[in-house]
Amino acid sequence: LKGQLRASGTGAAQWLEDYGQILKADVHSIAGLVEISGKPCFVKLYYPKSPLHKLRFTLGGGRPVRSFDAALALRDRGFAVPRPRACLLLPQGMLLLTQGIEARGHLARCWRSGLSGGEAGELLCAAGGTLADLHRQGYVHGDCKWNNLLWDGRRLYLVDLDNAGKVGWRGATPTRAASCGDRTRSPARRPTR
Prior knowledge:
Blueprint: H1 2-8, H2 12-19, E1 21-25, E2 29-36, E3 39-46, H3 51-58, H4 63-76, E4 84-90, E5 93-99, E6 105-106, H5 107-112, H6 117-136, E7 139-140, E8 149-151, E9 156-158, E10 165-166
């Protein structure tokens, strides 16, 4: 990665625009997919929002490092998250590099593409089951929305993990979720007004 950035002679953002597929760009970051050493990778350049953020990056902290650390912790517990590869301090900010997921898309895109009843049920069960497991193990995502859940047709991946982490619950017992495979139960009823 360092070699590719150096060879391009441009900043990381321009390099990503020139050689990658931009997925998101705003005043705080630019993110996209790029091939590095023949492998698909997700790259996100975090710009410092203030001099304090720049100092955090310089000292090895901030959102990219939290995301990297959360991905390691969740992978160790068996969750499907893209494998973190590197955090790289650059003059423009800090770059996070992870495994690129060959996904059909995030859940919002999958849902809009039109799913059969069985596919929709499979997606919802995967999302509900993954989040229930996450909470049962005492973790939260911190920014859970459909755009942060990727579906590859078989597995659901949690992404955008910079707010994910262990919850400081002491003695709390998570509620037991009903199994998606148990179709003998009647559906939950909503309270009437």
